[in-house]
């Protein structure tokens, strides 16, 4: 696109008339018109920078240098490597083992824990690189040590499913979580843990009613007979599954069930308290407040979503939630502000999300979609405009 047409495009995005734009530049309307039609060239760097300053964009954008970063291009390649790893059946087919030692279950568990931590810090490109090898190692360790290797294999599949949901591939995530459920069968704790990702996958895949039913079944299966005597790990799993059921109910517009399930989860959260991460759930009172905000967004109640957000961030537990969890929540809050026709506040929330976990916007389709909607507004913060252009979502 010629430079003049880019000027016209961004002037339109900023909702500036040619006259107003010319006045801000100290030029005539005729000069602006000739530049935009390509009759007059922009051959002075200082003029380019003046135009960019008025339009609140980088001068490089006017020159057509907004190339997608390599990290965005590589996302699809990374998912494809995970797809290949999930499609291999080396052990049942008796294929020769790769030239790497079989990891002891203890070492495998350490590597799985590292992968979980990396995911919770929202370092999605690094997790994408780790998973193909981790899945292969976990499968081979499980064959050699079926008892000790079972939990790490389930956890490796859980991480894979969580990542693929983030990256917008629910069908491949479904394969990973199905593997997790199959390996976990017979162990109620592992089944409950894998069911958390099952709920995410079903909701993302549009199976919200099925998700509600499955999550309730899993939750009440792990629930202690007497809540007062329940241990924090099992209460965390039960409460997280109730949250998943509530979010699924919100997805199909069942406000009453959503509220009831979140209230039930809040009762369990009060017994667990904040600052824990049993079974990688991050469950506690703050997590329930965050879920209330997400449910309100799904139900179209922007005011309630913002109120729940304000409650969550005032808790000490807010800073203890994983970066991935906090940034994902902020994207939901930005959606709420957009629903309330307040793109300025949505932009400020997105900037905070980008500070906490940049990959939530750069690599997650849901985050990129909200960014694109905010960036279309003429009052959008300049850093978000630049980011949207760089990611090709402006």
TrEMBL record:
It comes from the Bacteria. It holds the Pfam family HTH_31. SMART domains: HTH_XRE (SM00530). One of its GO terms (molecular function) is DNA binding. Gene3D superfamilies: lambda repressor-like DNA-binding domains, Tetratricopeptide repeat domain. Residues 7-62 form the HTH cro/C1-type domain. InterPro entries: Cro/C1-type_HTH (IPR001387), Lambda_DNA-bd_dom_sf (IPR010982), TPR-like_helical_dom_sf (IPR011990). This is XRE family transcriptional regulator. It comes from Micromonospora rosaria.
């Amino acid at each position: 696109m010629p430079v003049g047409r880019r000027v016209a495009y961004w002037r339109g995005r900023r909702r500036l008339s040619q006259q107003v734009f010319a006045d801000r530049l100290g030029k005539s309307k005729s000069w602006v018109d000739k530049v935009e039609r390509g009759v007059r060239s922009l051959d002075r760097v200082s003029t380019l920078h003046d135009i960019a300053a008025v339009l609140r964009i980088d001068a490089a954008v006017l020159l057509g240098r907004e190339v997608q970063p390599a990290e965005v291009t590589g996302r699809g390649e990374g998912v494809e490597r995970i797809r290949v790893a999930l499609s291999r059946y080396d052990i049942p087919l008796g294929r020769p083992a790769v030239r790497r030692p079989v990891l002891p279950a203890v070492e495998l568990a350490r590597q799985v824990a590292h992968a979980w931590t990396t995911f919770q810090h929202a370092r999605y490109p690094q997790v994408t690189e780790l998973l193909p090898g981790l899945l292969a190692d976990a499968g081979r360790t499980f064959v050699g040590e079926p008892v000790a290797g079972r939990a790490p294999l389930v956890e490796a599949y859980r991480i894979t499913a969580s990542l693929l949901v983030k990256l917008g591939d629910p069908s491949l995530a479904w394969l990973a979580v199905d593997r997790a459920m199959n390996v976990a069968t017979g162990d109620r704790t592992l089944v409950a843990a894998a069911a958390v990702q099952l709920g995410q996958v079903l909701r993302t895949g549009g199976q919200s009613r099925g998700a509600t039913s499955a999550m309730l079944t899993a939750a009440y299966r792990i629930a202690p007979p007497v809540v007062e005597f329940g241990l924090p790990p099992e209460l965390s799993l039960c409460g997280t599954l109730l949250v998943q059921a509530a979010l699924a109910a919100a997805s199909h517009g069942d406000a009453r069930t959503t509220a009831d399930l979140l209230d039930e989860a809040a009762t369990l959260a009060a017994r667990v308290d904040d600052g824990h991460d049993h079974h990688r759930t991050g469950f506690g009172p703050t997590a329930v407040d965050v879920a209330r905000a997400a449910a309100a967004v799904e139900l179209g109640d922007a005011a309630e979503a913002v109120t729940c957000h304000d409650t969550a961030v005032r808790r000490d537990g807010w800073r203890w939630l994983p970066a991935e969890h906090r940034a994902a929540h902020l994207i939901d809050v930005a959606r709420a502000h957009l629903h309330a026709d307040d793109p300025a506040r949505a932009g400020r929330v997105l900037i905070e999300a980008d500070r906490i976990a940049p990959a939530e916007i750069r690599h997650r389709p849901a985050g990129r979609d909200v960014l694109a909607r905010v960036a279309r507004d003429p009052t959008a913060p300049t850093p978000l405009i630049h980011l949207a252009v760089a990611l090709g979502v402006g």
